[in-house]
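Most newcomers find our protein records easier to grasp once they have seen one. Sequence and backbone structure share a record, each on its own labelled line. To make this concrete, we reproduce a full record directly below:
***
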Amino acid sequence: MAGAMGPWMLVATLLSAVNVLLLVVLTVIWVRNYRTFGSEMTAGLAMFGVTLLLENVVAIYFFFSTGMLYANSPGVQQSVATLRVLQTVALAFLTYVTAK
């Protein structure tokens, strides 16, 4: 099915994979901080990370399994990729300041 994937969906899929990696790093840090400090804030951040992690994994699944949803609409494909770019930029900044 990946062969039928358009270039914008390929970009969206790759960015979702990057987001998964960033979210794993963030979630591990936040869970470690929660275990150390027991703060509700760090528990909330850990749940935020898990939720976004699941969202990105589900997105990758749907990009591969239901490509036909976006197949006939380059505008929609580009919009999906643009949203993934914005999420990746936000997560990159968050990962940088969290890991620092």
Remarks:
- DSSP finds three helices and no strands in the chain.
